[in-house]
């Protein structure tokens, strides 16, 4: 009888040991699952935070270059960069007003959307620059340039349109008085469509040859120079956003020329363009 009791006790002890081992194993597995799920939760939260930050950052407006207003730069007598004739609602500027720069009260605004890779833009400049500059110096118009980038596909991956518009923003930010000379130089040395465009070094040389000090700091970010602004493409996002805004407003080609906000087709004949401008100022009657 004692032997039977001893055998029963051994079986009971064995069962208890097995139960304890199973319980311990179950506890380990539960702990491991908690750690695993906690880790997954942390990763999910981290990913969610990163995605949220990226969305917020992408939604933020790109920092504009100094001396740009509403995606463009407005030129008055003597190459002075001024505020637009009619400041857009909600925007502010420390630039002089057109009146302070000697612009006539009845002056017209001539707005030109340009892409520095665009052959038609170059032709427009070569055809009309003399007439437009004369009207600017007379105080008859404020000439507003809005560089956009719609022809990147024609520079073999070089994104010349965007990079040239970025250069323009860098220079206008740092040395607005050089805007006119730079734009003229960019069109004069425009690369052919289908080529690889200009390197950063070549773009900076174009600027330097136009009288730009590429070592000068930006007004919007004194830690950057024109040179670093070009190599870092500091205003690339701004160019992208400005281009999209132009497309959304109906611009579908360049040059896209407006006189007091109304599109004109008189872009190939300086005399016809001048007459249309003078009609807008009231100096020529319809």
From TrEMBL:
<keyword id="KW-0732">Signal</keyword>
<keyword id="KW-0676">Redox-active center</keyword>
<dbReference type="GO" id="GO:0016491">
    <property type="term" value="F:oxidoreductase activity"/>
</dbReference>
<dbReference type="InterPro" id="IPR036249">
    <property type="entry name" value="Thioredoxin-like_sf"/>
</dbReference>
<keyword id="KW-0560">Oxidoreductase</keyword>
<keyword id="KW-0808">Transferase</keyword>
<keyword id="KW-1015">Disulfide bond</keyword>
<feature type="transmembrane region" description="Helical">
    <location>
        <begin position="34"/>
        <end position="56"/>
    </location>
</feature>
<keyword id="KW-1133">Transmembrane helix</keyword>
<protein>
    <submittedName>
        <fullName>Serine/threonine-protein kinase pknE</fullName>
        <ecNumber>2.7.11.1</ecNumber>
    </submittedName>
</protein>
<dbReference type="InterPro" id="IPR012336">
    <property type="entry name" value="Thioredoxin-like_fold"/>
</dbReference>
<feature type="domain" description="Thioredoxin-like fold">
    <location>
        <begin position="102"/>
        <end position="271"/>
    </location>
</feature>
<dbReference type="GO" id="GO:0004674">
    <property type="term" value="F:protein serine/threonine kinase activity"/>
</dbReference>
<keyword id="KW-0418">Kinase</keyword>
<keyword id="KW-0472">Membrane</keyword>
<dbReference type="Pfam" id="PF13462">
    <property type="entry name" value="Thioredoxin_4"/>
</dbReference>
<keyword id="KW-0812">Transmembrane</keyword>
<comment type="similarity">
    <text>Belongs to the thioredoxin family. DsbA subfamily.</text>
</comment>
